[in-house]
Amino acid sequence: MATRPLGAQISHMLKARGVDVIFGIPGVHNIEMYRGIEEAGITHILARHEQGAGFMADGYARATGRPGVAYVITGPGLLNALTAMGQAWSDSVPVLVLSSCLDETASLQGQLHQMRDQEGAAATVCDWSLTARDAASAYGLIDRALGEFGGARPRPKHIQVPIAALGAPAAPAPRAAARQHRPSVSPLGLAMALRVLDGARRPLFLFGGGACGGSDSARRILARLNAASFTSYAGRGIAASDDPLHFGAYLSRADSAQVIASADALVVVGSELAEVDLRPEIFDDAPEMVRVDIDPAVLGDRHRARWPVLADASAFLDALDQALEGQDSAPSDWSAAEVTDRRNRWRAQVDAGRPGIVPICDALRAALPDETMIYSDMTQFAYVAKRVWPMARPGHWHHPFGFGTLGYALPAAIGGAMGRPGLPTLAIAGDYGFQYTVQELGTAVELGLPLPILIWDNAKLKEIEDAMVRSQIAPNAVVARNPDFLALARAYGADAVAPDTLAALQQAVLAAFRASGPTVIVMTPDLSRGLSASN
After folding, report:
1. Distance between CA atoms of 182 and 185, rounded to whole angstroms?
2. Which of 11, 127, 278, 279 has its CA 20 to 30 A from that of 305?
3. CA distances from 59 to 27, 219, 358, 496 (A)
């Protein structure tokens, strides 16, 4: 029972709870948190900016399903991480941020990194933000955070510990509490769903990111019921991309409302039905809806499902799959022809709206291994890809939905690659957004990650320019001087290439997966102008 400073004990506690990697930046206020990292056997990843550390923790959590942990300092260190915490809140990602804080702020002024209300600032972008003033409080709050990650909707938490408390001697943390489990489906909830689906001739399922763990069950349910399906962007891959009755991730198209209205039973599983995925009015004429979610707040939102089911989405799908086992395939009024026609029409609309990107998506998808995990940024390339790129499996494309933070892709991909050593990881960013966190390229080089970093370089803020034109505003402040991305990448020690054909792009990405460090690959709109993968 070794007594150590509390900062060191926290690292030992986290290791005992299964944490193997911590992302962060040390400073004079949080150095006691660094005393025990190596001794505990935890790998620390040095970010170049606390926002990058937060995004790395987010990317690690999405890749592994385990909490991502970040260590940051008082004041500006924590504030720099708030953007990443806000993104993790939007996307229900289990991120735990541990920071130092000043011992006293009411009677003392002018201290280094002093804020009026550090705890309150963090509380605006996470599930909760609390101060642990002693060892018992720190241990209790950490276990509370880890337990809630496993037993409820996972959202980021912040715990701050005063500097003096971090350096004070403390006994080891107590034994971990029993693991919490998410709510399983009740017999009544399952019965409600079966009742709505019984006899339906045009059943329709909508799968969100919360249902990714139930993909196998979802595919069997769709086959048994001959049901059609949509997914949210985060839910892509839950339904098989070659399922003839799968409409894809096209809920943002206005006439998807017609498809929904034509169904006679609607089951929404693990989706917030958020505005970043769809137009809220598409449910105005929706049929009787069963809605399954782990979050009671979601079940009580404006959509007001007639049959709300509070349950873990994957557990619900497993239970429904078992209930339908052995039943004959149900007759259906859906036809593969109508689904194919809609998908082809929507794909053409997306291609016309942002020309030239779809062929590049097709070429990349054809070249990438199925197990590739992709992290994208807020860029026109990703806005197209998340609609037209069918996913072979769920949970393998991560995007800053909701909060919509620029600079997400590179650091999140670093975190994801750390969580999946030996498996392919890919980052996609726009020329402007890449520069928000370009400094994290140094971290990727230090780690020797074989990470392709695709930069969509259209030399401007094209999405904003297009929005201004649609609003009859003369485009303003949408063109910024870009650096020489290839020279910049090489200055960091990364490889760099600018393919001039789609075939060369495919080869560059595959070579990057085999490299001994990251590779920046610059893509321009010229790639799709009269070029093809067969050139």
Report:
1. 10
2. 127
3. 23, 27, 26, 23
Q: Mark whether 251 and 396 lie in a shared domain.
A: no
Bridge partners of 206? Answer: 230, 268
Residues 143, 191 within the same domain: no
Hey, how many other C-beta atoms are within 10 angstroms of the C-beta on 435? 18
Return the amino acid letter for 190.
L
Count of domains for the chain:
3
What are the pLDDT digits (tens) for 239-276?
A: 999 999 999 999 999 899 999 999 999 999 999 998 88
- For tokens 């107590």, name the residue: 174
Can you give the residue range of the structural domain that contains 118? 4-168
- Do residues 311 and 292 touch, judged by C-beta distance below 8 A? yes
Q: What is the pLDDT of residues 376-387, one digit of tens each?
A: 999 999 999 999
If you write DSSP's letter for every residue of 220-267 in order, what string do you get?
HHHHHHT-EEEE-STTTTSS-TT-TTB--S-TTSTTHHHHHHH-SEEE
Q: How far apart are the first and last CA of the chain?
A: 67
Query: How many helices (DSSP H) and strands (DSSP E) are in the chain?
Result: 21, 19
Give the chain's radius of gyration (CA, Å). 24
Residue 227 and residue 321 in contact, taking contact as beta carbons nearer than 8 Å: no
Structure tokens at 503: 């075939």
Strands across the sheet containing 373-376: 397-398, 373-376, 425-430, 452-456, 519-523, 495-497
